[in-house]
Amino acid sequence: MMLQTRAAIGILELDEGHELGESLRAPRDHSLLNPATFDRPIVTEIVEGAFAETVIAGDPSLQDACIRAARRLVERGAGVIVGDCGFLIRHQAAVSAAVNIPVAMSSLLLIPALLRQLAPAQKLAVITANSVYCTEDMFGIEDPANRARVVVGGIECGEYVRNAVARPLVRTSIDTIEREVAECIAQLRATHPEIGMLLFECTGLPVVANALRSSTQLPIYDITDLCKLTLGSVACN
What we know:
By secondary structure, the chain is of the alpha/beta class. Helices cover 35% and strands 16% of the residues.
């Protein structure tokens, strides 16, 4: 009987620097970089120059670096490619055109489909690392009425984002991440009681998604959900 192998997930990683001893730490439960999240092997390539603040602000010069890293992932056996920052959606078209495997650079790709899951009077809340740069042109929505149903909340003023852009990267506690995201959600819901679903742009937030599903009683999607959907479409070799 021929044995089948499951396709590896290729991750375009940000250039985050290295905290002393960080490389010895296992990825957190439910995180994008944890193979157990997908029950698949993971291969990664750092996108040269893709520092968190650079990716968030949108540096067009990163496009070629993304393409080069994506092609290296294909050479290393990746069956799908995903981005390690939701703001990499700016390079979705270029990377998908450069390789011959499925590419999902950001959870923001889910927005049009998620709106169709909701009742017309409900809103989708996007929780992002930076609400200033998470703009409507990233949502893939043409209809102004549907654009108005997407509200954005950012955690850019909190400890988690400060640590994420530090050199070297500083790891933030799970409790702090959960608290900061919960506060952001609460503020959004106070202003927009019509919110019926949450989408995490930031790839660091899946580690608190289950806890916040329980506390908010709202459906929550993140990059790992998109990865699982994409991986499920790829045949075993």
